[in-house]
Request: fold
Amino acid sequence: MTRSAALLRVLAAYVVAFASAAAWLYAGPDTGRLWLDGLIADVLATLVVFGFSRGYRNSSFYDPYWSVLPPLLALWWWAESTPDVDQARSWLVIGLITLWAVRLTANWVETFTGLDHEDWRYTMLKDGRPTAESVVVDLGGIHLVPTLQVFLGMVPVYVVTTRSGRDVGWLDGVALLVGLAAVTLELVADRQMHRFLRTRKPGQVMDRGLWAWTRHPNYLGEITFWLSLALFGLAADPSSWWWVFVGAVAMLALFLGVSIPMMEQRSLERRPAYREVVDRVPMLFPRRPRLEPRA
Reply:
């Protein structure tokens, strides 16, 4: 199967998934709670994508979901909200989410090689397990858990797009700058990594540009993006401070507890030179790199 044909199959999966979610939202029972309606539709779309993943025996069907769902969910919440919601803040948030989603989805398309390739993390989670256990891991760990993580990260957007709050102020400006910085960080990190991959030698590891200041600048950008959404939620409704940050904290826990350790382990196993990079370059939060490894 060609790369173009594979992309069309993934596109078809998402058309079916979001059409199913939309059908439920506009023809299904109304729970009376926009956040719950959105969550049910989100899970329903995830289950459709999971069906395609199982049908094609490739869980990487889920990869674009992380970036495609948020702008659609935000737009639906906004469309269903009351007229007294602050329109300027909603425009800022949805514009930022769209910018982030376009960058991340475009990066996925650029790196997509076809349905003959599955993300190594998915195969690691599934390989060696009995069939029934593998299906549970696939559904829960690879599909539903990330969906719930992203939904938690979108809670501040729900606050912004459905509740009347304070006028746009200085905190919104901070949130916007943080979000734009996050997207820019991810974009630059992607470009630098792609250039490196085109010219790297066997065993060589990336330790230049942003990657000389942090071993995972792309993850740092992702964490910062979700923090920016939390700041928008706080600006819209300061009384919600105790729950608008839940998603950002969950994202931080996901990257620190799962994604980064898996990536680090794989890099150390495949590239012995990575040990020297670990000794010089901080894992996540930037710091001027050491010139020599620690003794």
Remarks:
- The two ends are 51 Å apart (CA to CA).
- Residues 170-199 form the longest helix (30 residues).
- Residues 3-280 form one domain.
